[in-house]
Each structure stands twice: as C-alpha cells, then as structure tokens.
Design brief:
With 372 residues, the chain is of the alpha/beta class. The protein has 2 domains: 2-126 and 305-371, NAD(P)-binding Rossmann-like Domain (Rossmann fold), CATH 3.40.50.720; 130-299, 3-Layer(aba) Sandwich (Rossmann fold), CATH 3.40.50. 35% of the residues lie in helices and 16% in strands. The chain contains 14 helices and 15 strands. The strands form 2 sheets. The protein has an 8-stranded mixed beta sheet, sandwiched between helices. It has a 7-stranded mixed beta sheet with strand order 9-8-7-10-11-13-12, with helices on both faces. A hairpin with a 2-residue loop joins strand 14 (343-346) and strand 15 (349-350). Helix 5 packs across helix 6 (177-188) and helix 10 (306-327) packs across helix 11. The two termini are 24 Å apart.
Length: 372
C-alpha cells in the first residue's frame, strides 16, 4: 500500500504522524511511504532521516495526500478538505463530535476515516489515546502553575508554596489517564491535590496509588461546585469516548471561583467539559479571561512537546497502521474489533454513535455496510 505522511498545518502543531523508525518498519513490510518535505522538522526529524528509512520525500501536500492511506496527527483543516476523496483511508485524531463541518466534509467526500481516540479494546481502554492523555495530563499542572503568575493574569500564587505559606489547591475533575497524570505532577509540584470521579472503585485505586496523599472525592454536582470554588488550578479531564464532552463544570461554578484562578480544560478537543470553555485556543494565543478566571483551552497540548509526543504516538499507532496497510481496510477491521470501533465515517455514512448523536445524524452499522 502507498502511505502518505503530510506536514501538519494546525498552528504550532509540530508533531508528525510517524517517526523515521516507523516509516522503516512499513518499508520493510513492503509498503511505499510518501513523506512531505519538512513534515518531521518540528519533531526534530530531518528529510534525510526519512530517506534513510526508505521513504520517498515529496515536495508538496498534494503528493503526500495522493496516497491510499494517509497517517496524520490532527484532523484535516478546511484548507485540506480539497484532498479528501473517495477511496482515501484517513487515520488520525479526528474528535468529530466537536467538528460538524469536518464530519460532513468526510461524508461528502466518501473518505474512510478512523480516529485514534475511538480505537477501543474490549475492556474499554483507548490504546492510541493513552500516550497523548498521559502527556496532556502531565502538562496541565505545569501550564496552570505558569498562568497563575500575576504577570500572566493569575492570582500570583506559587503552587508549591514555601515554608510558612500554604501551597495552592489543584482540583482535578476526572480520574482517568489525564487526571491521574495531572495529579502525579501536581503532587510533585507540592500542591494540595484533590481528584473527583463518579466511580468509587476508581477513587479507591487512586487512594491506594497515591498512598492517601491525594484527596479523592465522589463526583456530584454539589461536590464539584464545592471543590471548584477553592481551586487555584482546575484541571478538567472528563472524557466520553468519541462523544462530545459533558459540561461537568457549569458557568455558575466558574463565576464562584477565585479571581485569577486558572482552568485547564484538557477535554476541549471533544468540545470541553467546562461550560465557559466555549472556544478552543492555540499555543500562539492560549488563554482568555472570563468571569475573572483564566481559561486555557488549547486543543493540541502535546504539540508543545512534539519530540516526546511523536515517538510515543508512533509506538502505539504503528501496529494498527501496519495492519491496515498489509491486510487492507476491510480485512483489518473484520479481524480487529478495536480497530473497527475506531471507524468514524465510512462510505459517506457516520459509523460512530457518539459522533452521530453529537450532530443529530443517522448512524449506520459498519458490518452492514461492509457486507453490502
């Protein structure tokens, strides 16, 4: 199969779909890889490294997009819609529940689109989302601590405190991969940390893991409201796989927060789980202030550490890319139920229930379409 690796064009997105090592594995398996010139530079991978790996380095985006299977990091932007076409297989982070226009564009073009974030194992785990969630979770307290600086609009608090001055409060809503990693870093910074989750079993696991050093709170509307009011940094990490994130933190809760507190909404890719995070931001312009609270809503947080992110992402996506390329789409999804769950759009139809529900569109069964 011919595999394309275009350069990402999202502002300050420096990740790339595959490392040279990943490309080498595909070439050794008998596939041809087209890498757009400069695609890996933001992650520290030169065109020459891709050539050494066996890739064909091509001059423009249209060349890389001409492949049968395009492997990316972020969803296509409107400037890239012209490359969408019937027969194209697109494998990338899609987050379609927050992207109605892209969903419709993929359907109109007849693209087969698989989202990393919806590839799901039988136990409910999301193997391709994990590494980016780990990175975003570990970044969140660091970002929050930075924007707590008074010159950045924050409260002027050192999150770890000093002898004689208490540390700041970091409140994390959601105890999954993002929340656990955020708690680990926040605790390392010396903050007082609380994690809220709806699952008592998960809270017990976190209590054991952190040896009681992190407060664990069963998430209800009342407990979230109380915790949010005392937060210096609020990390929102609520995820419903493939679906639009629910608004767990309401606008009234935000109004009650301390002036200069910081919200980091890691769920912004899926529409945001804080009601006042009503627009995504970029690394170039990462924050806005609403109700006196600093909002950080960057949709591609791991793009700020692209070398780490690209290596970690390739490590988990490569086996699936190899499966798609070597077996073909139909055989690959019939043989691998986790990969089949990753299909968002096929044959002009929405396949993922969360995406269909978010946009009020009909949802089709992949198996029925494949058999027809």
């Amino acid at each position: 199969m011919i595999i394309g690796l275009p350069r990402e064009i999202k502002p300050f997105e420096n990740r790339v779909g595959l490392t040279p090592a990943g490309v080498h594995a595909l070439v050794r398996a008998g596939h041809r890889v087209l890498v757009e010139t400069g695609a890996g530079e933001g992650s520290g991978f030169s065109d020459q490294e891709y050539r050494w790996a066996g890739a064909d380095v091509v001059p423009g985006a249209e060349d890389a997009w001409s492949a049968e299977l395009v492997v990316k990091v972020k969803e296509p932007l409107p400037e890239e819609y012209r490359f969408l076409r019937p027969g194209l297989i697109l494998f990338t982070f899609l987050h379609l529940a927050a992207e109605r226009e892209l969903t419709l564009a993929l359907c109109r073009a007849g693209v087969t689109a698989l989202g990393y974030e919806t590839v799901q194992e039988d136990d409910g785990s999301l193997p391709l989302l994990w590494p980016m969630s780990e990175i975003a979770g570990r970044m969140a307290p660091q970002v929050g601590a930075y924007f707590l600086h008074r010159d950045k609009g924050g409260r002027g608090i050192l999150v770890g405190g000093v002898p004689g001055v208490p540390p700041g409060d970091v409140v994390i809503v959601g105890g999954g991969t993002v929340g656990t990693n955020a708690a680990r870093v926040a605790l390392g910074l010396g903050a007082r940390v609380a994690v809220l989750d709806v699952n008592p079993r998960r809270l017990r696991q976190l209590d054991d893991f952190f040896r009681g050093e992190v407060a664990t709170i069963l998430s209800t509307e009342a407990s979230v409201g109380q915790a949010v009011r005392r937060a210096d940094i609020l990390v929102s990490a609520v995820l419903v796989p493939g679906a639009r994130a629910p608004h767990v933190v309401t606008e009234d809760m935000v109004r009650a927060m301390k002036p200069g507190a910081v919200i980091v909404d890691v769920a912004i890719d899926q529409g945001g789980s804080v009601e006042t995070c009503d627009r995504p931001t970029t690394h170039q312009d990462p924050i806005y202030v609403k109700h006196g609270v600093v909002h950080y809503a960057v949709t591609n947080m791991p793009g700020a550490v692209p070398r780490t992110s690209t290596v970690a992402l390739t490590g988990v996506t490569l086996p699936y890319v190899l499966r798609l390329a070597s077996r073909g789409f139909r055989a690959a999804v019939l043989e691998d139920q986790a990969l089949a769950r990753g299909v968002n759009v096929y044959g002009g139809e929405v396949i993922h229930p969360g995406v269909a529900e978010a946009h009020g569109l009909p949802c089709r069964e992949l198996g029925e379409l494949l058999l027809s």
